[in-house]
Amino acid sequence: MARAITIAVALEGQLRLDDQPAFAAAVALARQRGGRLIVLAGRPEAQRLRGPHQRRLAAQALGSLRSRLMAAAIPLLHFPQLSTAAALAAHGELLRPEVVLHCRESWLFDDWPIAPASFPRVFAEFRRGLPQAPLPPLPPADLAGLGAGLEGWPPTWLQPHPQPQSPCSPPPPGPRPDTDSVDPRSAFPFRGDEPSALARLQHYLFDTDGLRHYKASRNGLVGTEFSSKVSPFLGIGSLSVRRIWAELLRYQALHGADEGSEWLKQELLWREFFLWSEQRHGAAFHDPGGIQGRPHSWVADRERFRRWTRADSGHPLIDAQLRELLATGYLSNRGRQWVASHFIHELQLPWIWGARFFEWMLIDAQPALNTGNWAYLAGVGSDPRSFGGTPRRFNLEVQLQRYDPLQTHRQRWS
Ligand SMILES: Cc1cc2nc3c(=O)[nH]c(=O)nc-3n(C[C@H](O)[C@H](O)[C@H](O)COP(=O)(O)OP(=O)(O)OC[C@H]3O[C@@H](n4cnc5c(N)ncnc54)[C@H](O)[C@@H]3O)c2cc1C
């Protein structure tokens, strides 16, 4: 047998064992070469800092992963301030892997589902043009007997660390990230670790009637059951989107392709659309003029913005949504649309300010999804109505009558 090698798996913010091609490749190589595994948790290079709610969830997922890896004597070495490359460069004398394999964010497709040159600007065309079925997930790798051992590492590398603070000044409001406490009113009271993610999926798809009613309930505002609540797990990589898709197919094999399961598949395709759109358009995707390169008119009023970040927007319906966002990091899709539309069209503030604040505060923050949705509502993104026309503007009084006639949400967050 060839000389044993050290193989490092760099998590890159993906906090699960299920459906991780990098782990599968590391295990195959280790078995072939008699290699030993270490796992590196650095600060993902391409990723912005996580806000307080997402950090809390990520810390839970990392802790759970650490215990499961320890059971196979695989050290999870944590460098919260450094990228993997920087950690390898700075600590070369101790970290000397022959091979480094990097985990990637979970997408349905590995390669362009539609060629970049003809990639559509609107979702309906994307959906129609999809040529192939998404790839199936890989099962979790069998790590038994492959650990490099837990001895001989600096103890601080094996400990959980808090992440660096926000570059914003002053730090935005919100709970301390190192506390596990959750507001009892939260629509997302779950822990962030992989077992909790899989349990939530099982619960929503198979243990209750949740999925069957998804199409009707997805515009809800209060509680855990109006939508799947998979986004916070996807955001920290403790759940794979291919696992969700495969479970939806399993559900459909048992119950038929009902409206609820078809609609949830469509929402996952929206996620995919924005992820690939960001790749297609590069910097323009996050530009104030968006993929349409539209000139913008707004009022860069810092005081108005500051009040908004304190849930003092001047509209009670929006303030209730913002209070929920600050306290829990989760907002329903309907609530996000209201808040963004009000920010853009009524307060006339720069949409990128609102998007950046959401990115810091959301428990499921994902830059492509967040910007894609804000730009859509600002009329500079992929809303078909906005190409040469006017973007959608919500009438909040009508919305309130339709979606919260008893004012349940407003009272809960008054
Ligand atoms: C202004 C604004 C900002 C948003 N920012 C984010 C964000 O940073 N991260 C994020 O994950 N979602 C974002 N969304 C999309 C959506 O609101 C959330 O994905 C959804 O509310 C999460 O709850 P859920 O998992 O229960 O959703 P479900 O309704 O159960 O949907 C299941 C999954 O489908 C995908 N999905 C659903 N709606 C959308 C959508 N409009 N665009 C793209 N994918 C979607 C998500 O992956 C979601 O987890 C944003 C929406 C708006 C209007």
Structure in words:
The protein is mostly helical and 414 residues long. It has 3 domains: 1-104, HUPs (Rossmann fold); 194-281, Serine Threonine Protein Phosphatase 5, Tetratricopeptide repeat (Alpha Horseshoe), CATH 1.25.40; 290-412, Orthogonal Bundle (DNA Cyclobutane Dipyrimidine Photolyase, subunit A, domain 3), CATH 1.10.579.10. The chain is built from 17 helices and 4 strands. The chain has helices at residues 21-33, 52-70, 84-90, 123-129, 194-207, 214-217, 231-235, 241-255, 259-281, 283-286, 302-309, 316-328, 333-346, 351-361, 367-378, 396-403, 408-412; strands at residues 6-10, 36-41, 76-78, 99-102. A 4-stranded parallel β-sheet has the order 3-2-1-4. Helix 5 (194-207) runs parallel beside helix 8 and helix 13 packs across helix 15 (367-378).
